[in-house]
């Protein structure tokens, strides 16, 4: 039987060619592969010699794929994907995932539901990265993220609508009893407005009181919505919050909604993950669990 491996070009040369074709730059390909730029150039030249074809046009400051090079690299890329998929299929899938959420989403929605999650999925170690910074799925090793905004969120990402952003004004019922209903402008002037970093009180008041001039000299500002909500629970003023963040507080009467106006600002909360996640089964289970508890 003939040795079919003799028909294959050297694997290192194929890797160098594939990386160089993506970057169109030998230096960047070398950085990706952890070798020198000269080594990449030499591997590509060797591959061209084996094939008897020119794969790149060398120019003054860049390189460009030739027509045979473009045709060849599409098949080589698929071959590397097949090898990667076959290798991953042999490995037991890790059962730990990192989810990136804002501190408010973590404290007001996710953490109270973690006992339910661990009971349903005791084999998944869910790691919570609570930050206002937008995490990078690759460099921060994030598997899922809850992001506030409007899709698309980037190439190669899928997004499911998790919650619509419906803003309501909330306050302690004890404060309402003390100062009177804030839908009366004379009463409203006695309330402190509890702001967060979104600063949506001016927009809300304009919608709630379209015919009246609203002026209040009392303002307290927080960098997190969760802090504004807790201040409202403590009777320190009126807070604006997403309805799903305060639903349980309203049901338990820790908070009440003294103004009927609901504000939508065109941005919502989405559950985002790579189209090709590192751990598909575990990501799917977490997505299904979160979507089921909307």
Automatic annotation (TrEMBL):
NCBIfam families: PRK11139.1. The gene is gcvA. InterPro entries: LysR-type_TF_proteobact-type (IPR058163), LysR_HTH_N (IPR000847), LysR_subst-bd (IPR005119), WH-like_DNA-bd_sf (IPR036388), WH_DNA-bd_sf (IPR036390). Belongs to the LysR transcriptional regulatory family. The keyword Transcription applies. This is Transcriptional regulator GcvA. Pfam families: HTH_1 (PF00126), LysR_substrate (PF03466). Keywords: DNA-binding, Plasmid, Transcription, Transcription regulation. It comes from the Bacteria. It comes from Peteryoungia algae. Residues 9-66 form the HTH lysR-type domain.
């Amino acid at each position: 039987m003939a040795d079919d491996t003799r028909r294959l070009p050297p694997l290192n040369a194929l890797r160098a060619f594939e990386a160089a074709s993506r970057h169109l730059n030998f230096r960047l390909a070398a950085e990706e592969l952890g070798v020198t730029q000269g080594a990449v150039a030499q591997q590509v030249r060797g591959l061209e010699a084996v094939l008897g074809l020119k794969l790149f046009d060398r120019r003054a400051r860049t390189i460009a794929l030739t027509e045979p090079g473009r045709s060849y690299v599409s098949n080589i890329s698929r071959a590397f994907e097949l090898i990667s998929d076959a290798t991953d299929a042999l490995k037991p899938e890790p059962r730990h995932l990192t989810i990136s959420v804002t501190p408010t989403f973590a404290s007001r929605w996710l953490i109270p539901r973690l006992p339910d999650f661990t009971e349903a999925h005791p084999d998944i170690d869910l790691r919570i990265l609570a930050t206002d910074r937008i995490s990078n799925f690759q460099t921060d090793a994030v598997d899922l993220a809850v992001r506030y905004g409007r899709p698309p969120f980037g190439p190669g990402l899928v997004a499911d609508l998790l919650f619509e952003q419906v803003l309501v004004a909330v306050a302690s019922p004890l404060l309402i009893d003390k100062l009177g209903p804030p839908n009366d402008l004379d009463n409203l002037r006695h309330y402190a407005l509890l702001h967060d970093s979104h600063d949506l009180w001016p927009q809300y008041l304009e919608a709630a009181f379209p015919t009246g001039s609203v002026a209040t000299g009392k303002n307290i500002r927080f960098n997190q919505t969760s802090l504004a909500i807790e201040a409202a629970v403590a009777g320190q003023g009126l807070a604006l919050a997403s309805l799903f963040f305060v639903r349980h507080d309203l049901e338990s009467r820790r908070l009440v909604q003294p103004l009927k106006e609901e504000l939508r600002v065109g941005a919502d909360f989405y559950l985002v993950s790579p189209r090709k996640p590192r751990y598909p089964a575990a990501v799917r289970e977490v997505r299904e669990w979160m979507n089921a508890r909307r």
